[in-house]
Design a protein that fits this description.
By secondary structure, the chain is of the alpha+beta class. The protein has helices at residues 2-28, 90-118, 135-139, 163-176, 209-215, 233-237, 256-264, 322-348, 360-373, 375-393, 401-414, 420-453; strands spanning 33-48, 54-68, 120-123, 146-151, 158-159, 180-185, 193-197, 225-228, 244-248, 251-252, 267-268, 271-272, 275-281, 284-290, 293-297, 300-304, 307-309, 315-318. It folds into three domains: 89-119 and 320-454, no CATH class; 123-219, Roll (Pdz3 Domain), CATH 2.30.42.10; 225-309, Roll (Pdz3 Domain), CATH 2.30.42.10. The strands form seven sheets. It has a four-stranded antiparallel β-sheet with strand order 5-4-6-7. A four-stranded antiparallel β-sheet has the order 10-9-13-14. The longest helix has 34 residues, at 420-453. The two termini are 24 Å apart. One of its GO terms (molecular function) is metallopeptidase activity. InterPro entries: PDZ, PDZ_6, PDZ_sf, Pept_M50_Zn, Peptidase_M50. This is Zinc metalloprotease.
Length: 454
């Protein structure tokens, strides 16, 4: 229920803001607005404003529209012709069309800024032992390294305040097929060095659990054992919740990541190898012999003990002042827009995975998870979806605002509007492209759920 309510609330807000942008600029340009609708289909609620606009809430909340007086859509009384959309100057018509995406963009800036102003407690950018063969291991990342800044060229650096900042930068670089440079200090902040994360090697890969493992940037977590699964190899060996693993096969265990990876590799072919663990339990050092069991993990066979970590990553509270937060909102929205456009371009020419497209199921899941996490994560989710809606509507497809802006651009350059015949043909093509995009996004949602259920 939380997921559904969070999704519907987000949808209603973002649609309302988008249509409000069209409405306010239309009224400012002297255009009469006949109806402002949230949703389609049967009208559930109706009110008529002082300017004669009919405000409605309809049964299907999957969009909205602003219907303006327009001679192309019906007869217009002579005394109202000056208020018709088609009678306004080209610059005003273009402004009215662009106002919807602009409103979503401005909302994203405000929401990103609000997230920065409110602040949140997030994991520090302190890294654990990287998996063998991962990009992080090849770059020379070690347990307890702290990432202080990132750069896409090794020259201009952006500060990293949290693990979320780092993960966002890595995801962007991987999606765009570019390397990422990290400014790193060792355990306790000692020393400083620059390393290159070769994220371009994983260009085109879909964002899934295996991709994140191959990148290898996991948080540093103390080697404390949390839950021990009943009937597991760890339970049979006598491991207990709260045990701190000091060494495994005589090697010191710096963090839970090292423990996990050592266990996963403890096999010869399909035969697991026994492990000698030294653990601290209630102030006493205990020797434990454990033999893992083999299990499938995607296309791989790994060894497992059936234990979970019992400590949380080190966290830091991050908050920005008024102007810094506003500037971060501007920067974050611009970076997201630039990255999305470039990613769409790479997907179009086959250099990025089409699985990057998410549909309504993925959005609903993200809405529910962020709402459960608290106000700040939910505001961050709203900002990203609002920015995505702005970019989507600016795509040059006839069914979208971007398509109408292309019509206005043609009219401005040629001095004549696009003919009705061409508009009909382009409308059909645009509708087909949108249907294909929606089908692809929905199939990605279904495929990800089936993978999760496997």
């Amino acid at each position: 229920m939380t997921t559904l309510l969070a999704f519907l609330a987000a949808l209603a807000l973002l649609i309302a803001i988008h249509e409000w942008g069209h409405y306010r600029v239309a009224r400012a340009c002297g255009v009469r607005v006949l109806r402002f609708s949230i949703g389609f289909g049967k009208v559930l609620w109706r009110r008529v404003g002082r300017d004669g606009t009919e405000f409605t809430l309809s049964a299907l909340p999957l969009g909205g529209y602003v219907r303006m007086l327009d001679e192309r859509e019906g007869a217009v009384a002579p005394h109202e012709r000056a208020q018709a959309f088609n009678q306004r100057p080209l610059r005003q018509r273009a402004a009215i069309v662009a106002a919807g995406p602009a409103a979503n963009w401005l909302l994203a800036i405000v929401l990103f800024a609000a997230v920065a102003w409110l602040g949140s407690e997030v994991p520090k950018a302190v890294l654990g032992t990287p998996p063998a063969g991962s990009l992080a291991e090849r770059a020379g990342i070690r347990a307890a390294d702290t990432v202080n800044a990132v750069s896409d060229d090794g020259q201009r650096w952006d500060d990293v305040q949290s693990l979320l900042d780092l993960q966002s930068a890595v995801a962007r670089a991987q999606a765009l097929g570019e390397p990422l440079y990290l400014s790193v200090s060792g355990e306790g902040g000692h020393g400083s060095r620059s390393v290159k994360l070769e994220t371009e090697r994983l260009s085109g890969r879909a964002p899934d659990a295996q991709l994140f493992n191959d990148i290898g940037l996991a948080p540093h977590v103390q080697p404390l054992i949390g839950q021990v699964q009943p009937g597991s190899a760890g339970a049979a060996a006598g491991l207990r919740t709260g045990d701190r693993v000091l060494s495994i096969d005589g090697q010191t265990v710096p963090d839970f990541g090292y423990l996990q990876q050592t266990v996963r590799r403890a096999h010869d072919g399909d035969q697991p190898r026994p492990l000698a663990l030294r653990v601290e339990r209630s102030g006493q050092v205990v020797e434990v012999q454990a033999t893992p069991v083999m299990a499938d993990e995607g296309q791989r066979r790994v060894a497992r003990l059936g234990i979970g970590f019992g400590a949380a990553p080190e966290r830091v509270f991050v908050r920005r002042g008024l102007l810094d937060g506003l500037w971060q909102g501007v920067q974050q929205s611009w970076d997201m827009a630039a990255t999305t456009v470039r990613l769409l371009g790479r997907m179009l020419i086959g250099e990025a995975s089409l699985k990057n497209l998410g549909g309504p199921i993925a959005i609903a899941d993200a809405a529910g998870q962020s709402a459960k996490a608290g106000l700040v994560p939910y505001l961050d989710f709203l900002a990203k979806i609002s920015m995505s809606l702005a970019i989507l509507n600016l795509l040059p497809l006839p069914m979208l605002d971007g398509g109408h802006l292309m019509y206005h651009l043609f009219e401005g350059l040629s001095g004549r509007p696009v003919s009705e015949w061409w508009q009909r043909q382009l409308q059909r093509v645009g509708a087909l492209v949108l249907v294909l995009m929606m089908a692809l996004a929905f199939s990605n949602d279904i495929a990800s759920r089936l993978t999760g259920w496997h």
